[in-house]
Amino acid sequence: MTDNSAPITQDVHTIPRKLPEEGKRNIVGLTREGLKQALAEIGTPEKQLRMRVGQIWQWVYQWGVRDFHAMTNLSKAYREQLDAAFTIALPEVVSKQVSDDGTRKYLVRIAGGHEVEIVYIPEESRGTLCISSQVGCTLTCSFCHTGTQKLVRNLTAGEIIGQVMVARDDLGEWPEPGMGTGENGPRLLSNIVLMGMGEPLYNFDNVRDAMKIAMDGEGIALSRRRITLSTSGVVPEIAKTAEEIGCLLAVSFHATTDEVRDKLVPINKRWNIETLLDALREYPKLSNSERITFEYVMLKGVNDSEEDARRLVKLISGIPAKINLIPFNEWPGAPYERSDWEQIERFADIVYKAGYASPIRTPRGEDIMAACGQLKSASERARKSRRQIEAEAGIG
Ligand code: SAH
Ligand code: SF4
Question: Does domain 92-393 match CATH 3.60.10.10?
């Protein structure tokens, strides 16, 4: 196997990552139970299974080790056996771009030659990694660049958690073997948002398994309160998210009437604002979490009036919420414009005075097309035409 030629400096203790080797099963992305079964299949004695899972898990997810031979608390013979059957493989980094504001964007290649983007956003008190759950998206939100690309496929759990591992490699953030996670002070990668390409709730099982790995205390160990899943509003999966993942929830709300939301977020035709709000009201109780983030993209003359702001606060009354106002990020051929700054501030003010935090999301990494809704793989297929985008937006 040759190492990939990514322009990334690796930490000395990080063994070069490998692409999946033919005939070998990749263990990245297996749940603890899945790993246990895989180890049983190669003849690991039943009595040892739990311990072996724990040991291998820690090497892979706590210390970022990619080579079974480096797992020094396992016998040499067992390491050989593992190496013959399994591999520890991550998505291949194709390129890395760093924005003037420090935002990093990675393009990674996964099986089948598909490409997805990962964005790392450093802030003073935290570092957020924005990851993808699908290649493309089946939904067709009219303001979203990803929505112009048809779904190519769901990402596997290994490809989802693999994005986190790729970023930790680049940030040099794996503790030395023997050290605990977080012993080196504040984390560079402290938060995960599922806000990249795709609708995470249309790939529920893989997203859940990957986030379980991210939250596992003997590995990457991020608290469930540091993971935010953003959905366009797949209502039947919302309660399941609370029960089976328990992370924070963000919802792409974007409009205050069904008429406008039908156009911006077409899934609204299936589950309308009222149905969505009913599901959201239950979420904090079910997940024992605090507030829900309402994402609201500011589109000039479409959803940014003061009347919209007043309607919004009325709609969400009773739901512990924060309203994240996102100035529209333009992309080539986009059928909308960003709202004027004064209008965004007027909107924010109304929401704030009604008692809700209403931060305006500063666009990050715009110079490298890393901002919200700008992600799209270069290996796009079946791209929709501009006419089709406009027709679906109801403005053709
Ligand atoms: N599919 C999920 C998660 C990915 S989108 C969802 O829709 O929630 C992440 C966020 O970026 C969503 O709130 C989405 O509506 C927003 N977004 C998409 N395109 C955008 C654009 N061009 N400008 C600003 N925000 C955008
Ligand atoms: Fe898909 Fe989300 Fe974009 Fe809508 S906003 S098209 S759900 S990625």
Answer: no
